[in-house]
Structures are given as C-alpha cells and as structure tokens.
Design goal:
The protein is of the alpha/beta class. 24% of the residues lie in helices and 21% in strands.
Length: 123
C-alpha cells in the first residue's frame, strides 16, 4: 500500500506529518509519494529514515535540493529507502494505493526507468 501526499511537503515538520499519516494507515505511511514541486531536506531525510520509511517518491527529478541532492540521496539510500523520482501525480487524488513500479533490468546500473502505476486500494 502507498500513501499519496497531496499537500505541499514541509521539510520542517516531517515528524508531525508522519504521525498524522500513521494514524490514517500505519502500513501505507511507510511508503510516501510527494506531489508537486517539493524537495526533502537532509533533516527531513533523517526523520524519514528514523521512521523506517520504505519508499519515497516525488514529481521532481531529484528528491533532494536540485543544487545539492547527494546528501539526501546518501541518507535515504543508506537506510535502504527506495527512491522513485520524476513520477507524475498531477491527476492523482489523496488516498491509499497499490503501486506497481517494476524497473528495467539494466546491467551495472544503480537506477532504472520504470512505468509506475497506481491502483486505488479498496477501503
């Protein structure tokens, strides 16, 4: 299951945000999609890793600041968090979804394009 984030993500309040999402669906709160033009700060990345976030996806081409994304990538990837960057969420409403995002099998690559598909979860 996947929790889709509709409102703008505020890097200064990730703990409050995660607490709210866990109340709604604790399993889905481990997998987060960030809608819109947002970036994750190093501080927020540390909160996500401490909260055992399994997947973090966003519409931007990088999850961290565009001028220096490496620190955020290293924090998240070092904790085993899967990153799904550059996904289209404009037409997706807030809710819980099943995500299918199988990557292409590219030899020697540390990342790969995929076709991400969200399927609405039954409530």
């Amino acid at each position: 299951m996947l929790q889709n984030i509709m409102e703008s993500f505020l890097p200064m309040m990730p703990r409050k945000y995660l607490k709210k999402r866990k109340k709604q669906n604790s399993e889905a709160a481990k997998r987060i999609l960030i809608k819109g033009d947002a970036e994750v700060s190093a501080e927020a990345a540390k909160v996500f890793t401490e909260s055992n976030i399994l997947l973090l996806g966003n519409e931007s081409q990088t999850v961290g600041p565009e001028n220096a994304p490496m620190e955020v990538h290293l924090i998240l990837l070092g904790a085993g968090t899967v990153l799904l960057e550059g996904i289209r969420l404009a037409e997706v409403s807030e809710g819980v979804y099943f995500l299918n995002a199988a990557p292409l099998n590219l030899s020697g690559a540390d990342g790969s394009p995929c076709r991400a598909i969200l399927i609405a979860a039954e409530r």
